[in-house]
Design brief:
Layout: H1 8-11, H2 14-28, E1 31-36, H3 50-56, H4 62-79, E2 83-86, E3 92-100, E4 103-115, H5 133-147, E5 152-153, H6 155-192, H7 198-201, H8 208-226, H9 242-250, H10 258-264, H11 269-280, H12 284-302, H13 307-313, H14 319-330, H15 334-341
Parallel strand pairs: 4-5
Antiparallel strand pairs: 1-4, 2-3, 3-4
């Protein structure tokens, strides 16, 4: 990009980004902050945990947080991917680098969580430690109660969210870069009276990349909201049917036919149908449709994903059928449901 100095403020529309940042923090349960290449905050801190809020308000400890933000961003640049690490208080944080033409201009920082993995976390680097043990010991007495309130997540959940943030940043940079190029070329063309074509504006550029990035980011956001782990499904009393439940909950974006479910359970479709109705109290098709609507309500309540995207994420063939099905169960269209839920 040319025309003005490179900075994260000239790439991100910070007013709009802060609103999106707040929504992402609400859905993912992570605190999120955007910083420049020096580690200085350029947005407010979305969903900052009480522990980290207390640390950052302490003039003795704040410099350590800023150094962690700065070094975390630089480590992310070196690895060219989201960098997951431990801060100076041994809390999980993520740095997602924002790059333009190979130049690092800032990062989206997220985290303020503890790991839940009972087997122990992977080998993560503690990016900064202090030699002033006395200082930390004195501060800890005022902070330990807040520490217990930090949210707990699995490492896989953290990786999924970091990938989603990386896709969003890539999309924003791509859009900002191309907008800048279009503006420059139109400015030059205005003097000659010629109107350039898209191929002249953006040689080799295709709308496919930003659309794919948008779609993939939405997919990750939906997966995070609904819980992407295969183990978040229901259990049933009959172990014969359990593979069907496991698959249904692990593949929320599919419309799984009864025949495939029967194959997963190694029984015939007719026997699966009778057994399912006996154990669950309703037909498989009715149960699956009702479950899709439960997930649809979660996405409508907790995200700003378009109705068409929610339809696609839940395996409906077309938005019209999704809207019809939703209205059948909720007596309202998805748009009306979202509007009145958020009043």
């Amino acid at each position: 990009m040319t025309g003005e100095p490179l900075s994260i403020q000239t790439v991100f529309d910070l007013e709009k980004w802060e609103r999106l940042q707040d929504s992402l923090a609400s859905v993912t349960k992570l605190a999120i902050l955007t910083v420049d290449y020096k580690g200085n905050a350029v947005t407010r801190h979305s969903a900052c945990q009480s522990f980290c809020n207390a640390v950052r308000q302490d003039e003795d400890l704040l410099p350590y947080c800023q150094k962690c933000d700065s070094r975390g961003g630089l480590e992310a640049v070196r690895s060219n991917k989201p960098y997951i690490y431990l801060c100076h208080y041994n809390i999980i944080d993520i740095a997602v680098p924002v790059m333009i033409d190979g130049q690092y201009i800032g990062a989206v920082m997220a985290g303020q969580v503890r790991l839940s993995d009972s087997s122990g976390p992977p080998e993560l680097e503690q990016i900064l430690t202090s030699k002033n043990k006395k200082l930390y010991s004195e501060k800890w007495e005022k902070l330990k109660d807040h520490y217990a309130d930090l949210p707990v997540m699995s490492y896989q959940e953290i990786v999924t969210i970091s990938n989603m943030l990386s896709l969003l940043c890539s999309y924003i940079v791509e859009e900002a870069t191309n907008k800048n190029r279009i503006t420059e070329i139109f400015d030059k063309a205005s003097g000659s009276g010629t109107l350039p074509s898209l191929s002249e504006l953006l040689p080799g550029y295709t709308l496919r990349y930003p659309e794919n990035a948008r779609r993939e980011a939405a997919h990750l956001l939906a997966g995070t909201t609904l819980g992407g782990e295969a183990g978040d499904g229901e259990r049933c009393d009959n172990p014969v049917l359990q593979p069907a439940f496991d698959y249904l909950f692990a593949h929320k974006n599919e419309s799984v036919p009864l025949k495939k479910m029967a194959e997963l359970c190694h029984i015939s479709p007719s026997y699966f149908s009778r057994l399912f109705a006996k154990e669950i109290g309703e037909s498989y098709s009715g149960y699956a449709a009702r479950l899709k609507i439960v997930w649809a309500r979660q996405l409508l309540e907790q995200t700003d994903l378009p109705i068409s995207q929610i339809s696609a994420e839940l395996g409906f063939n077309e938005p019209g059928y999704f809207i019809k099905t939703f209205k059948k169960y909720e007596n309202a269209t998805p748009a009306v449901y979202r509007k009145y839920y958020r009043k």
